[in-house]
Amino acid sequence: MEIRVNGNDLERALKILKRELQKEGLFREIKNRSFYEKPSEKDRRKQREALKKRKKSVRFKRVMKEDKK
Fold first, then answer.
1. Three-state SS for 5?
2. What is the pLDDT of residues 22-64, one digit of tens each?
3. 3-state secondary structure of 34
4. CA torsion sign, 22 to 24 to 25 to 30?
């Protein structure tokens, strides 16, 4: 990843860097690895995340179909 600094505007460069790191999920990964998670809890969390992702994709597809009508 590369962030360019234009005109010594470090504030803006840091803001862009943080946004990119958040998009990649780095902060979430650090949070998840900061403590031990039992395998059973990990499986449950992954199932919840997958269900949430499926529901979101269905909702998004429904909006797309309504827009085409």
1. coil
2. 999 999 899 889 999 999 999 999 999 999 999 999 887 876 6
3. coil
4. negative
The predicted model scores a pTM of 0.54
Contact 1, 13 (CB under 8 A): no
Residue pointed to by tokens 């990119």 = 20
Cα gap 53→47, rounded to integer Å? 10
Q: Where are the domains of the chain?
A: 1-35, 37-69
User: Per the structure block, which two tokens stand in for 47?
Assistant: 């199932």
The CB density around residue 59, as the number of other CB atoms within 10 Å, is 10
Tokens of 68: 């085409």
Length of the chain as a residue count: 69
Integer Cα distance of 33 and 28 in angstroms = 9
